[in-house]
Amino acid sequence: MPLYEYSCKECGHRFEELVSLSSIEAPLCPSCGAEKTEKLLSTFSASSSSSGSSVPPCGMKGGGCGGGSGFS
Description:
Elements: E1 3-8, E2 14-18, E3 37-39
Antiparallel strand pairs: 1-2, 1-3
C-alpha cells in the first residue's frame, strides 16, 4: 500500500496515511475527524553516496553532467 500525505481543509493538520490502491475515499483527519481532506503532492529526496566517490551522479568525469565530453 502506498503512503500518501494529506491536509485537512478544516483544521489544516497535515498527516500521512497508508491507503489501498482500490480506495477512492480520502481518509478522515486524525486530529479533528473532518471528512474534508485533500491529497498533497509528495516529494522525495535522493541522497548522494557516502562512499567518497568524486564521480558526479551521472557518471561523467570532469565537467559534470553537462560539460565536457565525459570520455577519458
